[in-house]
Amino acid sequence: MxxxxxxxxxxxxxxxxxxxxxxxxxxxxxxxAPVIKIGEAETFTLDNGLKVFVVENDKLPRVSFTLVLERDxxxxxxxxxxxxxxxxxxxxxxxxxxxxxxxxEVDFIGAYLNAGxxxxxxxxxxxxxxxxxxxxxxxxxxxxxxxAELEKLKKQALTGLATSKDDPGSISSKLSSALVYGKDxxxxxxxxxxxLNNVSLDDVKNYYQTFFKPNIAYLAIVGDMSKAExxxxxxxxxxxWERGDVPTFTYEEPKPASQNVVxxxxxxxxxxxxxxxxxxxxxxxxxEDYISSRVLNQIFGAGSSSRLFxxxxxxxxxxxxxxxxxxxxxLVGQFSANASVRTEVTDSAVYEFIYEINRLVEDGVTQDExxxxxxxxxxxxxxxxESPATIANFALNIERYxxxxxxxxxxxxxxxxxxxxxxxxxxxxxxxxxxxYITAVGNATEIKDKLEQFGTVTMYDNxxxxxxxxxxxxxxxxxxTVIENYIEAIGGKSAVGSIKSAKMVMDAEVMGQQLKIEQxxxxxAMRYAQNTLVGGNVMQSSRIKEGKGVVSGQGxxxxxxxxxxxxxxxxxxxxxxxxxxxxGYTLTLDGIKDVEGTxxxxxxxxxxxxxxxxxxxxxxxGLKIKSENPVSGDTFFSxxxxxxxxxxxxxxxxxxxxxxxxLEAKVTSLELNPELTEADFN
Amino acid sequence: xxxxxxxxxxxxxxxxxxxxxxxxxxxxxxxxxxxxHVIMHQDNTTPIVVTSVLYHVGSKNEQPDRTGFAxxxxxxxxxxxxxxxxxxxxxxxxxxxxxxxxxxxxxITYYYESLPSNELELALYMESERMLHSKVDQTxxxxxxxxxxxxxxxxxxxxxxxxxxxxxxxxSYSEHPYRWAPIxxxxxxxxxxxxxxxxxxxxxxxxxxxxxxxxxDIDYKQTEEWVKKYFSEIPKGTxxxxxxxxxxxxxxxEIRDIVYDNIQIPAVIQAYNLPPKTDQDSYALSMLSTxxxxxxxxxxxxxxxxxxxxxxxxxxxxxxxxxxxxxxMYGIVNMGVEPQDLETEIDKLIKQVQDEGVxxxxxxxxxxxxxxxxxxxxxxxxxxxxxxxxxxxxxxDTHYVNKVMDxxxxxxKEDLQRVANEYLTxxxxxxxxxxPKPAEPAQ
Lengths: 682, 443
Fold this sequence. Notes:
A: Cytochrome Bc1 Complex, Chain A, domain 1, outer membrane lipoprotein receptor (LolB), chain A, 21 helices, 28% strand, globular, B: alpha+beta, Cytochrome Bc1 Complex, Chain A, domain 1, six-stranded mixed beta sheet, signal (chain A), metal ion binding (chain A)
């Protein structure tokens, strides 16, 4: 009684104070740290080995079911890409429902259902749980794996692969994975056209039959469902699932580099360099170092108040953002620090990264940084608990990583007990600043030499394979000879010179639409006309004549500036090499480069006004195999055929930022020296 | 930093169904003498607390030659106060383990922070500082003007189709201040004097125009004490809040236009004027938009995207506003398809709903989808706080949070056909074609 009275009086006092003048110059102090109550998951196991976790939360009448397979990582080898198809193949129809029927039934109850190579998840309102479980079990037991769906998925994957080969971010992650883990490791292997094409329907079925087994599965149920009810519904839907032997796999542990080394992918059209500095680390969820590694990363590079961001963005302005991560994994984890920076500051940025890494390991962190990082991480830990799925994840992690039962219950306590010395020890344990893989994807001509100061630079291709060893250019070879050899290779000066004009039509398909490109070249009068048609309608066209250029599209026409006309002329002569000299272009031979496996001389062609293209001529055949134009993109030439005594490429592959997928264009009509009229250029 | 309802609202609009169905949301509310309305919701499951202030001021409260003020204040009010150093507002919240956000619409401005529950007093202090004496000075105005310029460039000028809302509103209203979007005009912001900004703050950012909502791991009594401690001394506004009293005249002819934008693929936009947000027909219209474009098995997605492949994507969004918003429908045209062709097909499907209505099965499906989204809208404290505040301010009844499902239950299958005929009328609509600016010369 007495206690109550006192606290009543106290609270009166508080409110009296409240109405008096508030001292606004002081921030209110935090109350005692709230006790984090983590709801416990109930668990039971079916006879077939399926382990079930139930996190009951009846705040809302919803329930979700997440089935996870716990298998060893898979080295897919010559079928790399297989696991990427499994989920969508599972969802592509069952012996009871077509894909369309499945979609409609899921939508009808406002539910969600999806599958991956190691998971199936579903959620719905409580009252629809029977229906959604029916659908989920149907997908689990009765997928029919239609051949047509696999073909469609392969086609999409091949398109994705083609796009990723030119995407600096994808190239960078392939390169650093290849270096950190090695190509013969599940985390380092890459998909190629060949491995994707190797995947057969039998492989998909075989995967399904091997790995979709209850004895390696966990089912997490979160929401408005008691353990008793869960036992009933799980038995009903999953007891018939038959166990089976699932193979296990082990892999050799990746080792860090013996000293700092640099891996570089040349992407000559880049204006930015993607830098990733990486190292394999031995870190698993639940390790002694794990929680302190979260704090360490928060201080070093997790957000906009971390060291990397403050240095490389706020202070130096090299980049839009610089970040780091310490990934934890049962097999092997990874430390990574990365940013995309302007080409000209590439070496300065790498220098700052290494400076920050050294500073972290040698000087450690400060008390102030530690306090802020703890507050930040405690807050987000607390907020994450709002989602019941987090509790289910915790329960799963405790099981999968064999953690103490109270691991998450005491997580914040463990974190708050960490000292500056603990964090410094973790930095020292995890990072070895002398054994880093420093990777860069960018314009090698500009950055290669500058990167030598950080370690031996090795060149890689856009798939993370070592670049073919390119011979040095013969010192006696001049750029003029390369051009002469090319003219010779396609038929010789007189044959090439005799072609004064051409009409060429190319057909291509993009996203199911027929595309037609018509071009008319009039070399002698320097006239050019181009129309791009989609489905028979002219989408875009351009004209150049009498020194002027016009571009039209969607009913509007715009005059080109003089600079634009100058740049356009680089590509508007038929067989332009014949005219380079008369046009007064500057030619520079920039070594021998690997063009999709073929060694080729790179020639930079620059106009007097400063526009330029890069052409690549095969060392062996002398033929032009690629041209890079900063405006229109990259064009690859192939299928050379003899016309009027001259070899003309009858196939072009065009990659450009303007089109979502590489365009495979075939020449379907070619007239050399045709009659041209004024109308052709109107 | 802050997400903008203006652009994002287009996408989020579909999910913005405000409240709860079966599970009742309990709350307590009270008013301070200065007019501040306070709503509290206790939920001790997770030790976090969401604190929010809804100011009943949006772009519609602006003068035609001073547009963009409400949105500008959304930025300005992160500049600090007499006791919070410039630029520190966000750092303080984050270093106490919190996160924060804000947005501005045509009707309201909304600020919120989510913090560990032992930091509630800090949150209340921060919001009271903002309401009592935000820093509205030349330095702040100059800094934020640059930020807003950058934002406009990123979110409107450079983002493909980013100007849809601006261009559509401009033509959908001739009288009502909804004719400009919250982002407003940079020229107006440039032309405004510091005194005008200070006056706007005094006019609208006053307790009698604000609703404070606290949701989460709280103690009701303690919370009320702290609210009184920090907010009681804030003076009430001295004049009535300006709210436009404009009735938008009904349009009698279609408005049709072309907008050239930095895009690769053309788009077709249609907009139809809607009744006020609180009108009972709003529920039928929201179901109608879901019927037309919500999900893979919706009418237009199935017909125009999957089957005919005339559109790459299609979406119908009721932008429901206090004084009557607009129903915006936009379709991105597939390669080689003429915008005209897609529009014809869209119109055919609208006509089909007008003539035939929807089937029993489709109506049941719509009810299921609505129920699911209403239930899910209250799955987080942030969602609950926002729904409570909106119920009080827009629906003038906080209990509305528990009545949304009832409102949907009153919608009959026939209502979908009726509202399709009543509101999706061809003679008063706006039609825009978004076409690519002719590109850089490409060989």
